[in-house]
Amino acid sequence: MDNPATDVRRVVRELCCPEDANEMLAAVDKYFTEDATFVYPLLNTPPAAGRDGVKAAYKMLRVLSYGQRFDFHAVAFDRITSDNKGVERMKGFLDCTEHLKFSFIPLPDRVNPTFHLRFLTRVDLVKGSDDKWRIEKQEDSLPSDYASTGLHVLPFDREISNLVKWCMGSATLVVGGTLAKFNLFN
C-alpha cells in the first residue's frame, strides 16, 4: 500500500471478495509480509508459518464462505513510528461489517441467508524497502456486545441479549448507586 488510510478499504476487498481463491492468495502475497500472522476469532496462524499460514487461513475462509461485501464504519491509523533498526511501523484499526453466505449450508444461493458479521480489525503495518506498507499482523475480533456481532442464530436472540444486559445494568445501577450513596467498599 502506498497510503494505508486511503488504500486499506480496497485492499480488504482484494483480500476477501474475489470468488477465485487464487486471486485472494495473490493479494495475500502482495499485501502481507513474509513473517505475517493472522489472528481470527476461530483460528490463529502459527507464527512460524508466516505468510503461508495467512494464505491457508484465507483459503479456508474462501472454502467456507462466498459473496463477501463490506461496509466500513470507521478506519483509523496511528502515527508512524520507527524501531531501533530504523524500520517504519504503523498500526491501523477498522470497524466493518462483512456480508457473506456460508458454503456449507446446503441451500440454493437464492435462499441461502446472508450473514452480517461485525468485525473490529487491527493491523500492524511495516514499510518495506520498496516504500510499500505491508501487513505484518492482522487481528480480527468480534464486538463483546452480542447484539452487535451479527451472529444471530435464534429468533429474538438479540432482544434476549439486550434484555439480559438491561436487567444487569438496572441491577448495577441499584447496587452500585446504593454502595456509592452510603460510601461502602471504598
TrEMBL record:
Protein name per its UniProtKB record: SigF-like NTF2-like domain-containing protein
Limits of the SigF-like NTF2-like domain: 1-179
Superkingdom classification of source: Eukaryota
Family annotation (Gene3D superfamilies): 3.10.450.50
